[in-house]
Specification:
Elements: H1 3-13, E1 23-32, E2 35-36, H2 38-47, E3 53-54, E4 65-67, H3 87-96, H4 101-112, E5 117-122, H5 128-136, H6 151-154, H7 159-167, E6 174-177, H8 183-196, E7 202-209, H9 213-221, E8 242-243, E9 245-252, E10 263-272, H10 285-298, E11 307-309, H11 316-330, E12 336-337, H12 340-343, H13 350-364, E13 366-367, E14 389-390, E15 395-402, E16 406-414
Parallel strand pairs: 4-8, 5-6, 5-7, 11-12, 11-15
Antiparallel strand pairs: 1-2, 1-9, 1-10, 3-4, 7-9, 10-16, 13-14, 15-16
Helix pairs in contact: 3-7, 8-13, 10-11
Length: about 425
Amino acid sequence: MNRRGFARIDAAHARPRPSLKPVPLTHFTATSCLGTGITATRAALLAGAGGLRPCDFDDAALTTWIGRVDGLEAVRMPPTLARYDCRNNRLAQLALAQDGFADALRSAAARHGPDRVAVILGTSTSGILTTELAYRRRDPQGGALPAGFDYRGTHNVNSVAEFVRASCGLDGPAVTVSSACSSSAKVFATAARMIAAGLVDAAVVGGVDSLCLTTLYGFNSLELLSPEPCRPFDPGRRGISIGEAAAFGLLQRHAGGPDAAGLVLSGYGESSDAHHMSAPHPQGLGARLAMSAALARAGLGAAQIDYINLHGTATASNDAAEGAAVRELFGDRTPASSTKGYTGHTLGAAGALEVVIAAIALQEGLLPGSAGTTRADPEIGIDYLLEGRRRALHHVLSNSFGFGGTNASLILSRVAP
C-alpha cells in the first residue's frame, strides 16, 4: 500500500483526539533476565549485553533461547499471601522490592489515600504454570486436581493485580489488561484516563509475565521460536526468544519534591486492526494508527521524536510490518531499535519493560543498540541502531503490538523537574 493509500485509510479512521495532560511518571523499576532493578538493566543497555541463554526451563525439550530470571524459584511469599504463590506473583514480588518502589507506593498511599491508588497491570498467561504443574498431579482415578490448587490466586488473569494490591496495602481499583503483547503498554493509557476522569489520583502500572510451558510450546507450534538468540530487524532473523519480566511504574496526578523525576507520559495511542489472529497487517496499518494517535495526544510532530523503541520481535512478518509503518510516518531519519535482543520477548510484560527502558534512555541520554542483530535489514529502510549512541533526548516513542491486531504506542518525555 502506498502513501496515498495509507492517507485514505487514516482519514476513514480519523477521530478528534483530545490532547493528553502529561501524567508524571515518578518511580519505576524492572526485573528481567538482565537482573533485578534499574542498575542491572541500565548496565546491560550501556554495555550492549543481552541476558538470553539456551532454554533450561523445566523439562522443555526445545532448541531455543530464553530470558530467564535467576533466583526466582527461591522467592518465598509471606504467609498472609500464600494463596497467591506462583511463579508469576513471585516475579512481581521480587520486582516490587527493587529501587525503593514499595516505599514509593506506601508514600503515595499516605499522600492520596490507599483507596485513591489504582493497580492496573498487564499479563498474558498470568500463573498458568501452576495449573500446568497441577495437571501433572491429578488424581489417577478421577482426574481431580490437587486439593491445594487455588485457581483464583494463581492462574486467574487478575491474580497479579489482586496480589500487588494486597501486598502493597492498597484499596483502589485493581484491573488487569490481557491483550497479548500490548497488555502492559495499554495499562498506561487506562491509568491516564482514570486519573484524568478523577477516579483515582495515582496508579501502579506495569506488567508481569513469567515462563511457562504453554507459551514455549505454543510459539514453537507456530514455528516462531528462534534456535539462536533473537536478531530483531536482521535480514537473517529466525524468530523470537521468549523471556520473563516484571516492570512497574507509578503515575501520579501531581509530582513535586522527591517525586519530581522529570519524566511524564505525554501521549498514548491505541488501535485494533483485527487483520488476523496472529499475523500483523502487512503494511502495519494498526501500528501506524497507534503511533499517529500517540503523537496527536502529545501534540508532537513525527520529527520531534528522538528515539523509537520498536516492538521488534525478530519474526520476518512483524519486523517488516512495523518497519513499513515507521518508515511511512517517520521516514528514515528517526533512530530506532528493538531491545528484545537483551531481554527476549516478555509478552504481556514487554510494554511496561520497554517503558522502563525508555525512561532509562531519557535519563541517560542513551539510544540503545540492538543486542544480537549483526546487520540491519536493508529492505526495511529505517535508521536502525546496531550500536548504542549518546545524545540528549526529549521524547521517546515505545511500540507494543499484540496478536489479533491490538496495538499500543506510548510517548515518554523529559521535562524540567
